[in-house]
Amino acid sequence: MVRFCKRLRPFVTEKTIGRMITSGADMRCEERVKQDDATKCFFNVVRDVFEGAESPRFEVLENKEYMECIFRLSASVENVAVKEGLLKLRNSLKEKLLLIDSKIFMNEYTYNVLQNFPKLSAIENRLVVLPFVKKFLRGKLKKMMKKQKRQASIGAEASAERVHKKARH
Q1: Are residues 21 and 79 in the same domain?
Q2: Which domain holds residue 80?
Q3: Domain identity same for 146 and 160
Q4: What is the pLDDT of residue 66?
Q5: Domain check: are 103 and 41 in the same one?
Q6: How confident is the model at residue 2 (pLDDT cuts 50, 70, 90)?
Q7: Per residue in 66-110, pLDDT tens?
Q8: What are the residue boundaries of the DUF629 domain, all occurrences included (predicted)?
Q9: What 3 state SS string does the chain have?
Q10: Are residues 2 and 46 in the same domain?
Q11: Residue 50 pLDDT more than 60?
């Protein structure tokens, strides 16, 4: 494509050559689009970079929507903005992946400790079992408090109605 454009140099301006290359690349890009998850993920990242998103969004869009969004934004976004967008997304993903890794490691540790439950020491017992017991008891306590509040409010309404009726008579 570039060689073809260079041969036409005397007849065509630089701007026209750029448009021809861009449209050729657009057509090739559309030809290669597949409906797999990797392509959709790639399009999401490209769109997020062009829009300057703080963190990646993974939405399910049709290929036509991706292509329209990317083509519309690619003409107006400068290279510096693309670099900054990529850095932002990379840092955001790095933070999210570290959080996911830490949660996975914590779950694996808890699972392994619970498998060896009969062998737990007193300290491990406090670190592993006690949080689950606390969470369970907190949930029960909250339910009891809500139930008691409802009963108290119903009782207060009933007594207020009785007082109101007695005041009428």
Answers
A1: no
A2: 35-115
A3: yes
A4: 57
A5: yes
A6: very low
A7: 556 666 666 666 767 767 777 777 777 788 888 888 889 988 888
A8: 27-96
A9: CHHHHHHCCCCCCHHHHHHHHHHHHHHHHHHHCCCCHHHHHHHHHHHHHHHCCCCCCCCCCCHHHHHHHHHHHHCCCCHHHHHHHHHHHHHHHHHHHHHHHHHHHHHHHHHHHHHCHHHCCHHHHHHHHHHHHHHHHHHHHHHHHHHHHHHHHHHHHHHHHHHHHHHHC
A10: no
A11: yes
